[in-house]
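[Q] Does anyone have a clean structure-token version of this?
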Amino acid sequence: MPPLIAERKSLPTKVVFFTVSFLLLLFIFVVVRINSAPDDFPIGERVVIEEGASLNDISHTLARKNIVRSAFLFRGIVIFYGKEESLRAGPHVFVEPLTAFGVARSFIQQSSLIAPARVTIPEGSRLSEFDALLHAAVPEIPEGALIEAVGGEEGVLFPDTYFIPETYIVLDVASLLTETFAEKLAPYRDAILASGFTEREVIILASILEKEGSDAESMRLISGILQKRLSIGMALQVDATFTYLLGKTSAELTLNDLEIDSPFNTYNNRGLPPSPIGSPGIKAIEAVLNPTESPYLYYLTDEDGVFYYAETFEEHKKNKERYLR
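[A] Here you go.
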């Protein structure tokens, strides 16, 4: 009898052992299963995480997009590592199927986050050049879209280096560029009011200086010359407006070109042209507001970009004969 009693006492221990083992194996199987990549993992597809999304929002978005099998597991992994602040809004893309741990690591390290497109717009660029550079950097924005978004108006976008988020549409880009222009111009509001020019006139003249000058010093000196011409009622006589109209360099211009019937013909018309011929940078704007006074009324540039100045037209003609052969 005693042995039988001993056997009966050991039976529950075996049952418990097998039950615990079974449950443990089941738990491991479930964890491995829900950690594995979904069968229809969206390789190469953009998944956009909205700005301000919580960890809970992100985990449910990933589960809904079949990037993770379990929102709970993804959330638990991130909380375990204490990296909730590392998750970033924006477009994410995965180039291969990942486990939930792999997806969490990608979000924490931000390796899945698509970097913004970098667009550098040089000073003096025309609206068409802004548009072309934007399209080259962000092909999803069609050619001509930026021109249409700003109504085809020159001189309202600021030349700078921009980082365009993947989620931006053309109206977002137009707002970014015009708002940047307003921000950059804000410190000069008082100086513009004191200059005797309107803000639009400052931009028009600055856009000319971008093409006529080569650096801050030459821009300020030419600014003084052109403002002197304006004050005495003399035509500006700048070639930059013809480059805008015809796409020709100064050396390519002909006498017939200088007779073209256009408000941008600064040989036949006095005063400023009706609009900017590009988007000026800060140096050109400062040159308008801080011109260098000089006795000169004429200037030219040789093939090497060297400037020559003259007080009289006779001196100017001699400079032409000497330096523009």
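[Q] Thanks! Anything notable?
[A] The chain is about 50% helix and 5% strand.
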